[in-house]
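From: lab user (bench 3)
To: helpdesk
Subject: output format question, protein + manganese (II) ion

Hello, I'm new to running complex predictions and I'm not sure whether the block I got back is the full result or only part of it. Here's what I submitted:
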Amino acid sequence: MIDETHDPARRSWVESGNDPATDFPIQNLPLGVFSRPGESPRAGAAIGDQILDLRAAGLYGGVSLNGLMAMGASLRRQIGETLDAGASPHPEWLVPIAGAALHLPAHIGDYTDFYAGIHHATRVGRLFRPDNPLMPNYKYVPIGYHGRASSIVVSGAPVRRPSGQIREDESAPPVFGPSRRLDFELEAGFLAGPGNRLGEPVPMAEAESHIFGFCLVNDWSARDIQKWEYQPLGPFLAKSFATTISPWVVTREALEPFRSPAFTRPEGDPPPLPYLSPPGEGLDLTLEVWLNGERISRASTRDLYWTFAQMLVHHASNGCNLRPGDLIASGTVSGTAPDARGCLLEMQPRPFLQDGDEVLLRGYGRREGFARIGFGECKGVILPAR
Ligand code: MN
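Helpdesk reply: Thanks, we reran it on our side. This is the complete output you should expect:
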């Protein structure tokens, strides 16, 4: 619900948090894990260009956010009261973001990636099946695959170009070598809250209470490896070499003003099956891709065919247990416009990623009458293959 924590007039005693251009005003207060040189990691909340040290402030002493996720407690209200312009200033609880190392915000035990960007699925499907781009299951099943959690890295970590089996000449056997069709995928994802017990599905009515908060996700993809390996079981080594996420988890509460109606299904599409109904609400977040400092794409999470709640419910519908900190990503977010394409595969003949390229994802919510809030950076630079 919208309340005084979303009041656009609210200000903080941290002056940089009152800058209208910051991603992290007092209306946001995303959570992350940071360390100063020589010190061990601890949890913090971003405000302007500073981090509120949650341990120093006496709010949370954990070294990851998993403990908060398990309790379903974002602390956003308490953090806001601590940082409010009307509270006593405690500059000794602040650490400049620029002077800190940012870590993965949680221990991520499992990572699942969906395929809910219908314009991405359609455009990519058309490359292979011009007359019938979407598979017959697409509008019934939220399609997904199990990603690899061990290779999730936080923004700023370099990404090594993978090698793998590639078959460019279809009249010859495949060769093993560096990918030449390395791509990014523009995605949003959520980290799970309390989770469900094995064997106990989550009903739609409870889905949102299992969503702790959101981050940006770059699901790096080697298209040449993917093309040869993906049938019949789906992506494997083409994706598992690295996934980059943004370090700050923007809580579900902070995103309340950016709720939007679920995707409007075109006439003739089947309604969602009863266990995925009603669909809940979507999110109106703008996502951008910057390649070597140039913005090359801008898309919206309004274009996701399935809501995040539906993804979660579908994931747990067979009794699979979700655990605090699990990462569940949307799939590539693309729009219908030519400049709203969430990966290079959709931008051909633009070249695939070169060694040294920097890919930066940004994301934000903006709505009349509310403070703009952002996700910070989700960045990676490509290193040459080993
Ligand atoms: Mn993906």
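A quick orientation on your result: The domain at 4-103 is CATH 2.30.30.230 (SH3 type barrels.). Let us know if anything else is unclear.
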